[in-house]
Amino acid sequence: MKIEVISARLEDVKADSVVIQLFEGTEAPEIAITLPESIKKEIAPSIERGGFRAKLGQVLPTYPSSVSVAGCFMLLGLGNKQDFSLEAVRQAHGYAIIRAKEMGMRNMVIPIPSLPPYSVPEITSSVVEALSLASYRFDRYKSKVEDGKQPELIQLLVGSDVKAMCDAAAREAAVVSEAVKLARDIANMPSGDLPPKKMAEVAAEVGRISGFSTRVIEAEELERMGMGGIISVGKGSSNPPVLIIMEYDGGGETYAVVGKGVVFDSGGISIKPSEKMEEMKYDKSGAAAVIGLMKAVAELKLPIKLVGIVPAVENLPSGRALKPGDIVRFRNGKTAEIISTDAEGRLILADALAYASEMKPKAIIDLATLTGACVIALGTHASGLFSNNDGLAEALIKAGEKVGERLWRLPLWKEYFEQIKSEVADMKNVGGRPAGAITAAAFLMNFVGDGIPWAHIDIAGTAWTQESSPEKSYIPKGATGVGVRLLVEFLKSRSERS
Ligand code: BES
Ligand code: ZN
Ligand code: ZN
What we know:
Elements (H helix, E strand, L loop, with lengths): L1 E5 L10 E8 L5 E2 L5 H12 L10 E4 L10 E8 L5 H17 L4 E5 L8 H15 L18 E5 L5 H26 L7 H15 L2 E6 H6 L3 H7 L7 E8 L4 E6 L1 E5 L19 H16 L4 E11 L11 E3 L5 E3 L7 H14 L4 E6 L3 H7 L4 E5 L2 H14 L3 E3 L4 H5 L8 E2 L7 H10 L8 E5 L5 E2 L12 E2 L4 H14 L1
Parallel strand pairs: 1-7, 2-5, 2-6, 6-7, 10-12, 10-15, 11-12, 14-18, 15-19, 16-17
Antiparallel strand pairs: 2-3, 4-5, 8-9, 9-12, 13-14, 16-19, 20-21
Helix pairs in contact: 2-3, 3-4, 4-8, 5-8, 7-9, 8-14, 9-13, 11-14
The chain binds ligand BES and zinc ion (ZN) (2 copies).
């Protein structure tokens, strides 16, 4: 599927389908783009007939009676004008491409509407993301792919005055979308085919192509470095743990991102119920997002230094596994009493956060499918945000709003730290059922160096979509790749600021 930006008159194009965006109106739908009279006339009967309300994502294929610029005009609902946002653009155009695929369209034209307060390049970018992300399938294990074919060519029509800017926006959006798809691939991979060392190889390979370096620290050295959290969680599996460190140098300030890379979370000795345990292959979604983010930032050549840190482990029970009651010592010297071996994410992140802090970065952000409690609190509609810094939290929330990956901040009051006090160690790894997402974040905060702005993003509810959740057009079932677009946007805003 080739996507290109062109500047031409709609009357002069030739395609087998042209998308026409409309808003839901009080009486009839309202066309959202400037159209030549001839085309308006051709689609008027279909609009007036009344069946098409232009609800968000609603698609009505109409076929002009005379020879026209296209064999089909695909009327596309953008929903209510009051609710319009870039997210509506993404949702709507995601549905457009899904329908186009079903209808076997080979060659499409999408005029990009000008809809303030959003700029035409911004809308172009959202359209490209939607087209690219809605077409994603994890089908590498299928002998036969049943899906329809994608269009060969999609041309985005813009005015000549903004063509250059839209070109750049489209190129950037394509880079970011590929990075999101890489993150989805990594998270969707069965753990049997992606043990920690393999994940490190994938990261190194991506780095070679995209332009960042990768170091892989293996178990023996982790032991010497005092990474007791990663070692203890990893020791139950015959696939040894690793710490993956990716570095991109675009000059400028250093940011660190940390991703939970539990390739499979059985719970360990505190074993999980077997129902839905297969979903725990997604427990590496934080790591997947960090690797995707490194790819995007390196390819976009953002003027920052970015360090991606992924502790990768497999949490399994065995004769060598970590046990409740054990006490673990981490990289920064602190200790924790193990109450549940299923609260393993915080143990590996503890070492990674302590290590990241040693680099004294401008900020540390971690992404983790950390707690079921976060899913109970926010469902699948937002990721949990926890931070020791208001400015950082606000910037992340703003980036999330823009890209359609919402964050909701929860408090880190000192009372929550009381919940994880231990009789025998500096802390315990579980603070009881109340506020489970917060006590997990409080645990992590013990490993962030003094004065370093830090944010923890719990993506347990947003990292993958299940059968039961309504499918979003550009987020097919399975891994979502959440975090990549969010942090690209955040880092872009930071690099523009300086
Ligand atoms: N990976 C899970 C968290 C999780 C659960 C993510 C369900 C998405 C869906 C994590 O390692 C875990 O098991 N957390 C426990 C912590 C508890 C033992 C304090 C949980 O949330 O139940
Ligand atoms: Zn667990
Ligand atoms: Zn886990």
